[in-house]
Amino acid sequence: MKRVRIYIEYAKNAFKERFAFRTNYLFRIGGRLLFLFAQVYIWRALMGANGQVSTSVGTVTLQDMVTYIIVSTTVATLIGNNVIDVIDARVRSGEIAMYLIRPMNFRNMLFSSTMGANLFNFLFILLPVLIFGVIAFGFMTPSPANAALFILALINGIVISFFINYAIGLLGFLYMSIWHFRRFIGDLMSLFSGSLIPLWFFPGWLAKVSEFLPFPMTFYIPIQILLGKSDVLDCMLLIGRQLLWIVVLYGVAKLLWQGSVKRLVIQGG
Amino acid sequence: MVIRVENLTKEFKQRKARAGLMGAIKDLFHREYRIIKAVDHISFSINKGEVVGYIGPNGAGKSTTMKILCGILVPTNGLAEVNGIIPYERREQNARKIGVVFGQRTQLWWDLPLSETLDLMKYMYDIPNQRYQENLRSFSEILGIDKFIHTPVRQLSLGQRMRADLACALLHDPDILYLDEPTIGLDVVVKENVREFLREVNKSRHTTILLATHDMFDIEKVCSRALVIHQGKIMYDGSLDKLKNDYGSESTLKAELADTVAGIDGLSIPGIHEMNLNGTNLIVKYDKNAVNSAAILRWLADRTIIRDFRVTEASVEDIIRKMYKGFSQ
Amino acid sequence: MGSLRLYWKFLGVFLKSKMEYRFAFYSEIFINFFSYVVTYAGIWIILNKFQVINGWELWDIMLLYNLNLFSYGLGSLFFFVPLQELESMVHNGSFDGILIRPMNPLLHLLASRQRYVGFLGHIILGTIIFILCFARLEIEWSFVKVLYLLSVLVGASFIHIAIILFTCSISLWLVQSMAIRDIIIYDTRRFMDYPISIYGTVIQVILTFIIPYAFINFYPAQYFLGGKGGTLFHPILQYLTPAVGLFLFTLAYKFWQVGINHYESTGS
Questions:
Q1: Based on the number of CB atoms within 10 Å of its own CB, is B192 exposed (0-12), middle (13-18) or buried (19 or more)?
Q2: B123: alpha, beta or left, given left = phi > 0 and alpha = psi -120 to 50?
Q3: Which helix (H) or strand (E) holds C139?
C-alpha cells in the first residue's frame, strides 16, 4: 500500500509542475482552439453540400466528423505525453542510475508522473477546449453504452501510447541518440493513429497495413467506438485488440528495460 | 587618456514582488519597481599601458562598467569615452580596438576547432597575415595553445578554453583588453600562466588592461593600480602598494591547541587586534606589519602544544570591509 | 571584411565541418524528407477520397502545400536554428559575446549558431514535388512565369524569415516568449495547408492583411492555376508576394534593431 502512496506523490508532483507554468498554458489552449477551428472548416469544405460520405464503416456525416475532430483534439492532450523527454533528461543527468537502487519501478514511476500531468491537461486544457468546441460546433451525443466503451478504449489508448513512448525512451538510453528515430515514429503515429484523418478514409490496402500497427489503437479506435460506428460485438473485439497490444508492448518494454539495466551496470551510465 | 569615465550612472528597474496572495493579485494589475543603481556617478581615467585591477564584491558594478566601456550597454547618465569615441554609440568601431574575455562564457565557436575560430578572427578583424602568424607563434610559446589548437572547443578543459579565449582576444592587437574574472575556476598552474601572459602582453605591446576580479593574487601579480567599487561607487582609486599598506595588513592566525590556555589575555604583543579562544580553538587577528605569526606561535608554544595552525592573509572582502569602516568614520 | 562577406565565409567553414559528420548530415536531411512525405501521403489520402475541395483538386493542393514547404525550408535553413537560440543566449548572457564583435549582430548570430542542415530535406522534397506538380498541371509556361516563380519562392522565404525574425526578436524584451512564437509559427500556419477560400471572411482578412501568410502559397498558387476557386479581394494580390516578402522582412529587421537597442539599455 505504501508503494501506491509513493506513486500518487509522483503524480501530484507532475501536476504541480504543470501548474507552475500557468502563463504558458493559455497559449496552449489557444493553439488547440486554432487547430480545432481550422479542422472544422477543412472538413466542412471537404464534405461539401452533401454533408455526408460513404466509408468502410458506413455513412459518415459532417456531424460525425466534427465530433471526431473535437474528441481528437481534446484527447491529444492526454496522448501526447513527454515520457521520452523525461527519460532523456534522467539519462543525461545520470539520475537513471538511482532508479536501479531505489526499491521502485521506474516504469510505474514514469506512468504516475504522466498521469499526474494528464490530470492537469485534462482539467485545464482538455475541458476548456472541449466546452468551447461543443458550444461552437455541436456534438453528436453518444449512447451510454458507446460512451462507457469509449472511456475504456481511451484508457487503453493512453496506456498504449505510454508504452510506445516509454519503449522509444529506453531505446534512446540504449542507443544514445534516437532523436531521429523518435521523430520517425512520431510521423508514422500522426498518420496512422487517426488523429488527423480517420482510418475509414484510407484506401483499402493502406487500412490493411495499419491493422498491423499499434498506432490506430490510440485515437482511431476509441473515437470510432464513441461515434457508434461499430456494433457492441465489434467494439469488444476492438478493445480486445487493444489489450493484446498492451500485452505485447508490456513485454517489449520489459525486455528493453532489462537491456538498459544490463547496459547501465556494465558501462556505469 | 585611453579610457575616460565621468559621472557615469546606470540604473536598472527591478520588479518588486509583493507578498502574499493579495500582493500577487495586485501585481497582475500594477507592477511596482525599485530602481537599482548598478553604477552611481563614478569617474576615473586610465592611461595607455596601465594595468588596472577592478575590485569589488559580486553585484558591485564591475560587469556593468565593463559592458558600458565595451559598448554593449547604454548608461543612464554621464560619459564614457574610449580612445576618443563613445563606445555605445560607435559599437563596431570600438569593437575593433578592444579584446574581451568573460571568465565564465567563452566567445569561441563551440563546434569548431580552435584553429578555425582563430582563422575566422583573422577575417573579422582584417589582421594582416604576417601579423597573424607572428601572434599565433608567440601565443603558442607562452600559452601553449598549439597543443590543442585542432581540438573542437567543446572538448577543451576550462584551463585550455581560457587560454584560447585570451589568444583570441589579443590576436588583433587591441589597444585595450577587458577581463572579467578570467582566472575563476582555474587551477594554480594555469592561473600563473595566464598572469605571466598578461604581464608579457602589457610589457611588449603596451596593451591597456582592465582586470575585474575577486582574486587578490591576480591583482597583486599583474596590476599596478587598484580601482575598488562597492554598490556602484568608487571607494578607492590608487596604486596597489598604497592599497595593501593602508588596508591589507590584517592577517588571521587559526590555531588548534592541545588544551586550553589559561592566561591567554597575557598575549598582549602590540599589533594584535583581536583574540578569540573557544575551547581549544584559537583565532588571532593581527597587523602583519607590526607583528608576525612566528612571534605569536612562539608565545603559544611556550605555554601549550600547538596541534595545527593556519595563517590567512587579508582577503579582498576583508580589505574592502576594512575600507568601509574607514570611510564611514 | 564586411559583415555580409564574413557571413558567407563562416557558412563555408560550418558546412565543411558539418560534412565531416556524415551520419548526422544525412540523417537530419532524411528525417525531414520522410516527415513531409508522410504529410503529402495524408493529403493524397484525403483528396483521393474526396477528389475536390472548394474547386481545388489533388495536384492543386500539392502545389499549394509545396509552395509553403519549399519556401519555409529555404528561409529556415539560414534563420531558424540561430534565432531559436536567441532566447537562451539572452537568458544566460552569452548574447553579449555576439555584440562584442565588430560585425552586424544579426549576421554574427546567424553565422555563429548555424548548426543544422535538416531543412535541405524540405528543399529536396519540395523540388521533387514541384517537378511532379508541373508535370501533372497544365500550366502554360513563359519566361515571365518562370521568373515570377523564382521571385515568389524568394519572396515567400522572406515572409517566413520575417515571421521567424519577428517572433524570436521578442526574446530581446520578454524572457519566456516561446509560447507566443509557437502559436504564430506553427498553429496559425496550419491554416495555409488548404486554400484559404474555405474559411470565413474574417480569417481570410487576417491571413491576408494582418499575418500575411496567404502570400506565401495561396495567392501565388492562384496565379499559376489561373485564378482557381475565384478571386479573393482583388486579383492584384496574386502578384504581390515578392513585394510583401521584402516589405515584411524590412519591418522585422527594424523590429530586431529596436530590440537590440532595448537590450543594450537594459542589459540582461
A1: middle
A2: alpha
A3: none
- Which residue of chain B is at minimal alpha-carbon distance from C14? B112
Give the distance from residue C3's alpha carbon to the nearest chain B alpha carbon, in angstroms: 8
Residue B328 lies in a domain: no
Cα gap A163→A56, rounded to integer Å: 29
pLDDT in tens, A34-72: 889 899 999 999 987 667 888 877 888 888 899 999 999
CA dist., res. B107 & res. B164, Å (int): 10
Please give the helix or strand (H or E) that residue C227 lies within, else none.
Answer: none
Please tell me which residue of chain C has the smallest CA distance to A46.
C53
C-alpha separations of B280 from B254, B257, B259, B272, B300 in Å: 11, 5, 5, 19, 12
* Beta carbons of B124 and C1 less than 8 Å apart: yes
The per-residue pLDDT for B327 is: 58
Q: How many domains does chain B have?
A: 2
CA gap B77, B10 in Å, rounded: 7
**Contact (CB, 8 A) for C164 and C185:** yes
User: Could you say which of B192, B213, B245 is where a domain stops?
Assistant: B245
Q: Considering B193, B225, B245, which residue would you say is the last residue of a domain? A: B245
**Which letter, b or e, does each residue of C33-51 get, where b requires 16 or more Cβ atoms within 10 Å of its Cβ?**
bbbbebbbeebebbbeebe
Place of cell 548548426: C115
Q: How far is B117 from chain C (nearest CA, A)?
A: 9
Looking at residue A57, what is its pLDDT? 79
Encode pLDDT of B53-89 as tens digits.
998 877 788 999 999 999 999 999 999 999 999 999 9
B241 and B253 in a common domain: no
Hey, are the CB atoms on C264 and B125 less than 8 Å from each other?
A: no
Chain B residues whose CB is inside 8 A of the C115 CB are 111
Q: In the structure, what pLDDT confidence band is assigned to residue B158 with cuts at 50, 70 and 90?
A: confident
Within a domain: B329: no
The CATH number for B223's domain is: 3.40.50.300
Domain that holds residue B262: 249-313
Same domain membership, residue B308 and residue B160: no
Burial group, residue B188, by CB count within 10 angstroms (0-12, 13-18, 19+): exposed
β-strand pairing of B77-82 with B3-16: antiparallel
Q: For residue range A127-155, what is the model confidence (pLDDT) as tens digits?
A: 888 898 888 888 888 888 888 999 999 99
Inter-chain contact A197–C35, Cβ cutoff 8 Å?
no
Across the interface, whether the CB atoms of C179 and A27 are under 8 A apart is answered yes
CA angle, B261 then B262 then B267, to 5°:
80
**Nearest-CA distance from C85 to chain A in Å?**
18
Domain ranges of chain A: 2-267
Please indicate whether chains C and B are in contact, defined as at least 3 beta carbon pairs under 8 Å.
Answer: yes
The CATH number that applies at residue B253 is: 3.30.1360.40
The nearest alpha carbon in chain B to C10 belongs to: B120
Of residues B1, B177, B9, B208, the one with CA closest to residue B84: B1
Residues 44-103 (A) with a CB less than 8 A from some CB of C: 44-48, 53
Say which residues have a Cβ less than 8 Å from residue A1's Cβ, sequence separation at least 6.
Answer: none
Cell matching residue A196: 488527423
Going by C-alpha positions, the residue among C216, C252, C246 that lies closest to residue C106 is C252
Put simply, the answer to whether B111 touches C112 (Cβ < 8 Å) is no
Both B162 and B97 in one domain: the answer is yes
Residue type, B163: R
Flag whether pLDDT at B164 surpasses 80.
yes
- Percentage of chain C beyond pLDDT 90 is 68
Q: What is the pTM of this model?
A: 0.85
In this structure, are B180 and B309 located in the same domain? no
Return the C-alpha cell found at C144: 515571365
Query: Which residues from B are below 8 Å from C92, CB to CB?
Result: 105
